[in-house]
């Protein structure tokens, strides 16, 4: 059977979110990539909000392997939508894991996400150079029966279109500050959105600032997390970070793959160079799929799988850095100057390196893990 480049990813997207790819392809790039444009609406209409919600909670029940394939396909079509929806799927995956651990009321939120097609923004710490990915600028304190939140998250993707915000917070307890995850409806009093994102690339991901000023939530909307004695992450955090790294890697690989598809379809460069580009991209995707399969295996997920996801992410990052300039060179100067599409894809694909954890921050943690120590990202 013939197998076209990106066919496995697009067939998975077609199977689970039928019609989405065709509708996105019919839009001009400027429409697909603008803030509050039609792309997120098309995603919701296709049922994308419930993609990774388990079927027993009324979702589509996509596996992790299916999810990363879909993110690559979406990234190749609409980079902004891929980044925005990665944050949504990552938040949903964390909610699923929280339910598995606590057997609390998270199932109600999962069903609401699937039934009402709600979008979840992710207010987890990132974007501050030199700081821990677990450091949160949002504080939480008990006040009567409520938890009161204060702080801000910038950038925060889906800021304009979110229905719910999931945010890492530092909860003030008798035993000292404790990392927790809060779920806040977007319409809650005290939550506001302010301009922040100034770049053209990925503007459609709606990554502006979300502020919380004396936002009150009930305690059952705050999930407390723990650390191991060696500083390692707990199960909820571990699974969440694996989903984040793999989904983000697949999304940005899709952006680079869109450039490679142009090189292939237009038969640019010599055939050996085209083949080298495709081999690098497919090898990187194979690593992502292999790491995602561990999430689908049913076996316990721990530090080994987290380490594998980080290896995949940095490997993909290096692949993009090598492949994208070669694609631009193969496509030639006329392609670059005659329109913004190739330059836009290149600018978007480069942004994987700005997501947490940074290479500088994680280098010591990776080396420690590979010499038998704990993988400590905090």
Brief characterization of the structure:
This protein folds into 3 domains: 7-120, Acyl-CoA dehydrogenase/oxidase, N-terminal domain (Butyryl-Coa Dehydrogenase, subunit A, domain 1, Orthogonal Bundle), CATH 1.10.540.10; 122-224, Butyryl-CoA Dehydrogenase, subunit A, domain 2 (Beta Barrel); 235-370, Butyryl-CoA Dehydrogenase, subunit A, domain 3. The protein has helices at 7-16, 20-25, 29-32, 38-45, 64-77, 79-102, 106-116, 235-265, 271-296, 303-331, 333-337, 341-349, 359-370, and strands spanning 120-123, 139-143, 146-156, 164-173, 176-185, 191-194, 208-217, 222-224.
Labels describing this entry:
single chain, 378 residues, alpha+beta, Butyryl-Coa Dehydrogenase, subunit A, domain 1, Butyryl-CoA Dehydrogenase, subunit A, domain 2, Butyryl-CoA Dehydrogenase, subunit A, domain 3, 3 domains, 8-stranded mixed β-sheet, globular
Provide an overview of this structure:
With 378 residues, the protein is of the alpha+beta class. It folds into 3 domains: 114 residues, Butyryl-Coa Dehydrogenase, subunit A, domain 1, CATH 1.10.540.10; 103 residues, Butyryl-CoA Dehydrogenase, subunit A, domain 2 (Beta Barrel), CATH 2.40.110.10; 136 residues, Up-down Bundle (Butyryl-CoA Dehydrogenase, subunit A, domain 3). A hairpin with a 2-residue loop joins strand 2 and strand 3. The radius of gyration is 20 Å and the shape is globular. The termini are far apart. Keywords: FAD, Flavoprotein, Oxidoreductase. Pfam families: Acyl-CoA_dh_M (PF02770). InterPro entries: Acyl-CoA_Oxase/DH_mid-dom, Acyl-CoA_Oxase/DH_mid-dom_sf, AcylCo_DH-like_C, AcylCoA_DH/ox_N_sf, AcylCoA_DH/oxidase_NM_dom_sf.
């Amino acid at each position: 059977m013939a197998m076209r480049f990106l066919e496995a990813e697009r067939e998975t997207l077609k199977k689970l979110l039928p019609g989405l790819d065709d509708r996105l392809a019919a839009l001009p790039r400027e429409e697909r990539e603008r803030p509050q444009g039609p792309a997120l609406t098309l995603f919701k209409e296709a049922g994308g909000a419930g993609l990774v919600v388990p079927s027993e909670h009324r979702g589509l029940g996509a596996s992790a392997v299916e999810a990363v394939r879909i993110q690559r396909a979406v990234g190749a079509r609409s980079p902004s939508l891929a980044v925005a929806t990665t944050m949504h799927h990552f938040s949903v995956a964390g909610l699923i894991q929280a339910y598995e651990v606590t057997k609390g009321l998270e199932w109600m939120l999962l069903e609401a996400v699937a039934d009402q097609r709600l979008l979840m923004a992710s207010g987890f710490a990132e974007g501050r150079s030199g700081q821990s990915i677990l450091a949160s600028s949002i504080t939480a304190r008990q006040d009567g029966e409520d938890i009161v939140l204060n702080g801000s998250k910038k950038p925060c993707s889906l800021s304009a279109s979110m229905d719910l915000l999931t945010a890492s917070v530092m909860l003030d307890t008798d035993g000292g500050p404790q990392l927790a995850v809060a779920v806040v409806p977007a319409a809650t009093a005290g939550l506001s959105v302010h301009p922040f994102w100034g770049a053209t690339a990925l503007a459609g991901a709606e990554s502006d600032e979300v502020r919380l000023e004396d936002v009150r939530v009930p305690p059952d909307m705050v999930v407390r997390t723990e650390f191991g004695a060696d500083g390692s992450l707990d199960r909820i955090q571990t699974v969440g970070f694996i989903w984040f790294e793999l989904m983000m890697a697949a999304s940005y690989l899709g952006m680079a793959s869109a450039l490679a598809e142009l090189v292939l379809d237009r038969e640019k460069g010599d055939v050996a160079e085209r083949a080298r580009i495709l081999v690098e991209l497919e090898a990187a995707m194979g690593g992502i799929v292999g790491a995602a399969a561990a999430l689908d295996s049913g076996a316990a997920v721990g530090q080994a799988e987290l380490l594998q996801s980080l290896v995949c992410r940095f490997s993909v990052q290096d692949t993009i850095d090598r492949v994208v300039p070669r694609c631009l060179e193969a496509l030639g100067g006329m392609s670059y100057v005659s329109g913004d599409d190739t330059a836009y894809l290149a600018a978007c694909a480069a942004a994987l390196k700005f997501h947490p954890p940074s290479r500088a921050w994680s280098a010591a943690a990776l080396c420690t893990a590979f010499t038998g120590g704990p993988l400590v990202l905090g």
